[in-house]
Write a structure and sequence with these properties.
The two termini are 41 Å apart. The chain is an alpha/beta fold. The relative contact order is 0.12. The protein is built from 17 helices and 20 strands. The chain has 2 domains: 248 residues, 3-Layer(aba) Sandwich (Rossmann fold), CATH 3.40.50.300; 223 residues, P-loop containing nucleotide triphosphate hydrolases (Rossmann fold). The radius of gyration is 22 Å and the shape is globular. The longest helix has 16 residues. The strands form 4 sheets. The protein has a 6-stranded mixed β-sheet, sandwiched between helices. A 6-stranded mixed β-sheet has the order 16-17-18-13-19-20, with helices on both faces.
């Protein structure tokens, strides 16, 4: 049993978004509880209370009691809480302790002093449950973002804690891995585990949730059963910033590329090891001035292709041809801008506003403020980027790309951790870029984003082009087949 009594929390330094006010909550053993609400509403902060990271890791003013089976979590050392509560963070890199996937999965059990035979048995069993046998023994830092997320989820499951706390666990997972995650949550539920999930993507949780807690401005504003949530109208869901429980009910409008010009990528071959190419694309023609969705399963080579396109991989010698002009790797560095999957790698300054100035050829305060306002970031312009929520950081990186003035923009999972409202804001900004002839490549597992703004699809698998097509009526059917299976 989890109980929170009269809990209030503010992060050190003042009125930071994500604090909590007057939280009273009881979660019986065996329940699956969904925490939802707009980015920055306090979901992540609540998960940090349940796993003991507040106040043991994150400083701030904490009042009230956080009880796990009658014990006050805030007064327990983290190693004791970790025996009962397993966590999957929004950014899986922050929870890795080893360099290979098998060791990472065994790490928690080793810390508990379990026998070697038991650890090996659990690792093999969990790998089978999560369909991740090919990832065993791999260097974690050579895995894709989605594969890292898989390892993080599996590592927690191996230790078999009583409570699972998941913060945006599907944010980087492809459709197959998301289905595996659903099966795993279903298994935990059957085993009587308590599961608390902070999540924006809701469709994969349909039929699993016992309670839904809707947070706003650090308070629990509504508590619903799943049946009650399904009865909400589309307007009510939109007002609450919730994504749909049924993807087929999300509005779809076929789109046709508006431009006839193309650009060519040739001789793009690159591998992280000498024995295997991560991508091998001899020739690829893509439309200019369009919003191109780059899809594929985890590990398909999507992010690697993007890094090569932008000139970030020194060993990729491919060429990009636009009209009569050819651009080598170094020249592409000045024509392309990439928003990375882990935006922590590209946030450098002491404030959000300064982050905008870094990307601008001629820093202008009014122009920076305009883009920040469009992405709902202006109130945070003086805040340190690392003090923001994951979704807010994502939007800061996107705003930096928008003010850069580059002609080709690449966004790697730009809506990871974003609610419906902010996903739609990103879609509007991408559409605005298309209207001024900017080319956007959007690497994503987000079906809602694709049908909201994209005009073209590039499908990669195993480092090669699987398919490419316009998002007309026939293209929408192909896209739905990929994300939803047979209708």
């Amino acid at each position: 049993m989890i109980k929170l009594k009269n809990v209030n929390f503010q992060y050190m330094g003042g009125n930071e978004a994500g604090g909590l006010s007057d939280i009273n909550l009881s979660i019986p053993d065996g329940q699956v509880v969904l925490l939802c609400g707009r980015s920055g509403c306090g979901k992540t902060t609540l998960t940090r209370m349940l796993n003991g990271l507040i106040p043991n890791y994150y400083d701030g003013d904490l009042d009230g009691e956080i009880l796990l089976d009658g014990e006050n979590i805030s007064k327990l050392p983290l190693y004791q809480t970790a025996r009962k509560v397993g966590s999957v963070f929004q950014n899986p890199r922050t929870q890795f302790f080893t360099v290979d996937s098998t060791s990472e999965m065994a790490f928690g059990c080793e810390n508990q002093g379990l026998p070697q035979e038991e650890i090996i048995k659990r690792v093999k069993q969990t790998a089978g449950q999560f369909a991740m046998q090919p990832l065993l023994g791999k260097n974690i830092f050579c895995l894709s973002g989605g594969e890292k997320q898989k390892v993080a989820c599996a590592s927690v499951s191996v230790s078999s804690p009583k409570i699972f706390v998941l913060d945006e666990p599907s944010s980087n997972l492809d459709i197959s891995a998301t289905a595996d995650l659903r099966r795993l949550i279903q298994l935990w539920k059957q085993q009587g585990k308590t599961v608390v999930i902070a999540e924006h993507r809701l469709y994969y949780l349909r039929g699993l949730i016992d309670r839904i807690l809707y947070l706003q401005n650090g308070e629990i504003c509504a508590e619903l059963s799943e049946q009650e949530a399904h009865k909400l109208s589309s307007d009510e869901q939109k007002e609450m910033g919730l994504r749909p429980f049924d993807l087929l009910k999300f509005p779809v409008k076929p789109r046709h590329p508006a431009h006839k010009q193309t650009f060519l990528c040739s001789d793009f071959a690159f591998g992280y090891t000498q024995s295997k190419h991560a991508i091998n694309i001899s020739s690829l023609e893509l439309p200019r001035g369009e919003i191109i969705a780059v899809i594929g399963h985890n590990g398909a080579g999507k992010s690697t292709f993007a890094r090569c396109l932008c000139g970030l991989e020194k060993k990729c010698k491919g060429m990009m041809t636009i009209g009569e002009n050819r651009y080598d790797r170094k020249q592409r560095l000045t024509r392309c801008y990439m928003v990375m999957q882990d935006v922590n790698h590209q946030l450098f300054t002491e404030s959000v506003e300064e982050e905008m100035f870094v990307s601008m050829a001629l820093p202008e305060r009014e122009q920076a403020a305009s883009f920040l306002e469009r992405l709902d970031l202006l109130p945070f312009k003086d805040r340190h980027p690392m003090a923001l929520s994951g979704g807010q950081k994502q939007r800061v990186a996107i705003a930096s790309a928008l003010v850069s003035g580059r002609n080709i923009l690449v966004f790697d999972e730009p809506t990871s951790g974003l609610d419906l409202q902010h996903m739609e804001e990103v879609a509007r900004e991408l559409t605005a870029l298309q209207q001024i002839d900017k080319t956007s490549l959007v690497i994503t597992h987000d079906y809602e984003l694709i049908v909201s703004c994209c005009t073209y699809v590039l499908h990669l698998e195993h480092g090669r082009v699987q398919a490419q097509y316009c998002l007309d009526d026939a293209g929408i059917e192909r896209l739905q087949e990929f994300f939803l299976g047979s209708r």
